[in-house]
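quick one: zinc ion bound model?
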Amino acid sequence: MAKKKKKKKSGLGGKLLGLLLALALAAGAFQLGWHFGAQSTRFTGNILLVNEAHPLPADYVPEALVNLYEQRHSFRMASSEIYLTRETYEAMERMFHAAEEAGMNGYIVTSGYRSYERQAEVYAENGAGKAQKPGASEHQTGLAFDVTVETSAGFESTPQYGWLITHAHEYGFIQRYPANKADITGISYEPWHYRYVGVEAATRMRQTGQTLEEFVESMG
Ligand SMILES: [Zn+2]
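yep, here:
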């Protein structure tokens, strides 16, 4: 009888614990929703959504762009003229420094901020389907970069890619265009394109498997 009673008690304890966990999760979600809701004003914040349906104006230039080449960098660069927002650069430097410590070397950053005018040139050179229309490229946000390594096989088959896809969210980055989400993002698989959204949002998207489109929608 005593044993039975004890069991019952621990069952109740488990239920209470579950309830507390659910409450904590709900509070966390509420806080997250409020936080991102406040941040989701168009054209501001790290979860800024840019795609063909949500283009940036021609005169949108992010604040506080830094030239990566002039900063301490644990990665290589395809050019000495690659710019990102300071916050994005600092997170990316932490990430590639950690990668280096884990024995992952040779990352080459090939592209960062791209102005509306530059994107118009890229679009004219490559054409629809191969490049984003001016205003519709995430590169205009200064929050996105492209990366690769020297490989004949394709970046997605390298261990450096494996490390990045596993750890990017810990530094606030998401792989913006996954292979199985082209119907939602409107962009086919881009293993090289990473987007800064902040650690909280990136971790959340990692847990839920959401794209930025789905995440922003779920935040209302
Ligand atoms: Zn890109």
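Residues 111, 139, 144, 146, 193 surround zinc ion (CB under 6 Å).
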